[in-house]
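User: Hey, quick favor. My workstation is busy. Could you predict this chain's structure for me?
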Amino acid sequence: MKLAVIGTGNIGSRLARLFALANHEVFIGSRDPKKAEAIAISLGKVAKGVTYAEATSNADVIVLATPWANDATLATIRGLGDLTGKIVVDCTNPLAPDYMSNTLGHTTSSAEEIAKQLPGAKVVKAFNTIFADVMEPGKQTFGDYQGTGFYCGDDLKAKEVVATLIQDAGFEPVDAGVLQNARYLEPMAQLNIQIAYGLGGGTDVAFRYMRRRVA
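Assistant: No problem, here it is.
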């Protein structure tokens, strides 16, 4: 699959590596193509560093891993070109600049705000409840268990594609319903931050959604 990873921070660069290890063709998009190219070189022949527009024009799926604060994500979207019909994986959280609170909630989410800006795209929320430390290769499992990768969206086929990408990245996908349910996934990410940073719990952690199997 051809994937465009938009953003070269901790989340974007580490997801790009996991996708490359799963043999996806990865286009890393950045305002600074040289930075994107440096990351791409470290990933080998399956990755290329390009501009935002070049990344999205070549890809089947766009992975949005940019900061929310100071309208950085919304500004980035304006430079991505026409995404009509494409799957957009939203990894963002509506974090304040210090990360210790959310700027949206209850009545909307960053996923829904992104969907408003991209009316022709199929937006799926995913990867937002997972710390970058757990996106390092080989760190997706805790003993016998995989960390959970929650996802939600309104297009069933797009969700199936994203569930596969979550599996390819080493996590266990759990369907969290419609895109509006991002209003609940984004506070989960903030809870993770509060425990990790506010209480010193660290970031080598992951959520695990456990089901009791009925015979």
